[in-house]
Specification:
single chain, alpha+beta, four-stranded antiparallel beta sheet, 4 strands, globular
Amino acid sequence: MEYTLDRIEAGIDVETYVEDFVDVKGFLECCKACPNYNTIWSCPPFAFHPLEYWGRYEELMVIGYRLNFTGDRTEEEMTDALREVKARVAEELYEMEAEYPGSISLSAGSCSLCERCTKPEGEPCRHQDRMRYSIEALGGNVGKTISELCGVEIEWIEEGKLPDHFVLVGGLLK
């Protein structure tokens, strides 16, 4: 299976981002329907309020990749490609953190560092130095973000139809 990558980048001040793109209460309800809710350290509920987290920073650099698929493909192949690119995005964002002291990255989706998270056992995260929250876990609307700031529409897997592309979106708060 073949795919190409388009890099996506946009910047916005955090105050505007929170005002126009963040709905903590609304997205918390979506998170509650997910099996990761309260089972992964990067997912809600948190010991802090997401608006306080956003408030520590002044600028958000939205960083993402659009995976454009060509030819025949299966959902499994697409998901494998997504995992591969997600790991590359994470490394890129860690490198950006080093370039901008005091910054923190936002992962493209939930944490996948461990096969089994320690949160259900009440144990601390094994990788506190690398675990990152995602935009959506902090109440950010990723679909609206990528559409309005970057001009890219997200496609979803539908019954009997695979999308032509996937979009991974993370960011850097500085």
